[in-house]
Design brief:
Layout lengths: L5 E6 L3 H17 L5 H16 L3 E6 L8 E11 L2 E8 L14 H5 L1
Antiparallel strand pairs: 1-3, 2-4, 3-4
Helix pairs in contact: 1-2
Length: about 110
């Protein structure tokens, strides 16, 4: 388990989901080399999709920035050695209002 090795960043996950994320990251690192971040991300994402429903996103790497919208209770950011893992379930926001003067076009086209 990575609990002692992982350096926690931000998270709003409940303890059990957080433990699942750390456990899956540990399994992924047992299966894949740290030079395969895409494979690690795919593994963690697919497992979370299977356990907690679809819509999970996973980013694994050494240098990246992010600015994401996520469902409440579905975000974790942690590091293991040189790798950083960002796992979150995406959230659908309200569509932005049209500013192109065609706001009424939507109702006409329907």
């Amino acid at each position: 388990m990575l609990e002692g090795k992982a350096v926690m960043g931000e998270t709003d996950m409940k303890q059990t989901m957080k433990e699942d994320a750390l456990s899956l990251a540990s399994k992924a690192l047992d299966c894949f080399d740290v030079t395969e971040p895409t494979q690690i991300a795919r593994f963690v994402k697919k497992e979370f999709d299977s356990s907690y429903g679809s819509g999970w996103q996973c980013i694994v790497g050494t240098h990246f920035g992010s600015f994401v919208t996520h469902c409440s209770g579905c975000f974790i950011h942690f590091s293991v050695g040189t790798l950083t893992i960002l796992l979150f379930k995406g959230s659908v926001g309200e569509p932005a209002p049209r500013t192109d003067g065609l706001a009424n076009l939507d109702s006409i086209v329907k």
